[in-house]
Specification:
The protein is about 40% helix and about 10% strand. It is of the alpha/beta class. The protein has a domain of about 260 residues: Rossmann fold (3-Layer(aba) Sandwich). About 10% of the residues have low confidence. It binds 2-acetamido-2-deoxy-beta-D-glucopyranose (5 copies).
């Protein structure tokens, strides 16, 4: 069902893009509906940057990650057995290959024409969270993006580059780590901010990242450097999609750590995600109002993932509590697959979660389908 309608949409988008090509521009027929996809964020969207960071705590460069990925069934750095949501989105938009992780040797020459991926597992809105795990901070991701702009200009000229960059789809997917890897076990942070003001802080960072820098208003000494960072809109982005906070309380790792022995989703944590999501909604609406030439939308991953977690059978899954791989390493605890422990589940498509925090490819397909209409609003 999910697969079928995604295919139908891909076909109709392709027809649309072919029609657009033939009325005017001429030249080579471009199969994609947007020229490029540019991604920022955390492990939900990292396609391998952390492989190139010697100190990074969170990596997915080992089996069983990638066991169902592409033709080669090899780990790439994606945190799933197969495709992540943005892979599916890119395919739906007509791309035949994926934008490379910016730190990889493939991020060069013509490969950069279809975009770049700057995401880094364990990164988050709050730069402090990323720094604790030696991940690439959001501030640094934006600096890499500026560097990418220059590389693109060197490749195809300034004018062509800016056409690509303003038509490109920008996806931001991050924030989980600010709670799971920081706030929930950081007494100094939770003393300083209640959940509501912590969410204000995070959404403020998003707003500054997408709009113009409002970082200076954030009460943290470390964040001041960000006020010098020109933000996405000012850098030319005109189609921005941001994911909502996932159902934090339904992630298997959260249930293990905060479920007090119960097996249901942790209501308090889902409430925190909802608090964040409401504020994100207000901010995105404000940004859309402020900039008439900006298309901006929220990819709501909260609702489909909560629904699958609460009633897996509704999406054709059998398991939403156990993880497909065995978790529990010393450094990444219940979050990631343990490479030393054999016993991968027989069929990852029956599991909503591949590891303690990341959905399986099959669940990613359901999520991608559910975020399609938001995606369409950005590319049409
Ligand atoms: C608590 O959070 C602050 C701010 O994010 C960070 O600088 C500090 O390292 C964290 N402490 C611990 C113990 O995680
Ligand atoms: C810019 O794009 C046009 C049209 O596709 C192309 O003819 C031209 O060679 C490009 N410029 C550079 C510097 O690549
Ligand atoms: C975007 O930036 C402008 C300043 O240029 C500011 O007035 C506005 O409040 C910001 N919008 C949001 C939603 O942060
Ligand atoms: C914000 O929430 C309202 C009410 O649920 C919804 O109609 C609207 O589409 C949301 N806005 C965005 C940008 O997602
Ligand atoms: C794996 O599970 C999915 C979903 O239940 C099912 O459609 C598929 O046939 C299964 N594959 C195998 C090899 O059992």
């Amino acid at each position: 069902m999910a697969r079928l309608s995604l295919t139908l949409l891909a076909v109709s988008l392709l027809i649309l893009s072919t029609a657009m090509d033939s009325d005017g521009q001429g030249g080579a027929v471009q199969a994609q509906i947007v020229p490029a996809v540019v991604s920022f964020g955390d492990s939900t969207i990292d396609v391998g940057n952390n492989n190139y960071l010697p100190g990074a705590v969170f990596k997915a460069d080992y089996v069983p990650y990638g066991v169902n990925f592409g033709k080669h069934h090899k780990p790439t750095g994606r945190f799933s057995d197969g495709k992540i949501v943005t892979d599916i989105t890119a395919e739906t938009l007509g791309f035949e290959s994926y934008a490379p992780p910016y730190l990889s040797p493939e991020a060069t020459g013509e490969n950069l024409l279809i975009g770049a991926n700057f995401a880094s597992a364990a990164s988050s809105y709050y730069d402090d969270t990323a720094a604790m795990y030696d991940a690439i901070t959001l501030t640094q991701q934006l600096k890499y993006y500026k560097e990418y702009q220059s590389k693109l200009a060197a490749l195809v000229g300034r004018k062509n580059a800016s056409a690509i960059l303003s038509d490109a789809l920008y996806i931001i997917s991050t924030g989980t780590g600010d709670f799971l890897q920081n706030y929930y076990h950081n007494a100094s942070l939770s003393r300083r901010y209640d959940v509501d003001s912590y969410c204000n802080l995070l959404v403020g960072i998003f707003s500054g990242f997408a709009n113009v820098s409002t970082y200076a208003t954030i009460p943290s000494t470390k964040i001041d450097i960000c006020s010098a960072t020109p933000a996405l809109y000012r850098l030319g982005a005109r189609r921005i999609g941001v994911t909502s906070m996932p159902p934090l309380g339904c992630l298997p790792a959260s249930i293990r750590l905060y479920g007090k022995g119960h097996n249901g989703c942790v209501a308090r944590l889902n409430g925190d995600a909802e608090t964040f999501n409401k504020k994100l909604n207000v901010t995105v609406e404000a940004l859309a109002k402020k900039h008439s030439d900006l298309k901006i939308a929220i990819f709501d991953i909260y609702t489909p993932l909560r629904d699958l977690s609460e009633s897996p059978a509704s999406g054709g899954f059998t398991e939403a509590r156990k993880t497909c791989c065995k978790t529990g390493t010393r450094k990444t605890r219940v979050y990631l697959c343990n490479p030393a422990m054999a016993g991968l589940c027989r069929n990852a498509s029956e599991f909503v979660y591949f590891d303690g925090v990341h959905p399986s490819e099959a669940a990613n397909l359901v999520i991608a389908e559910s975020t399609l209409s938001a995606g369409i609003s950005l590319v049409t």
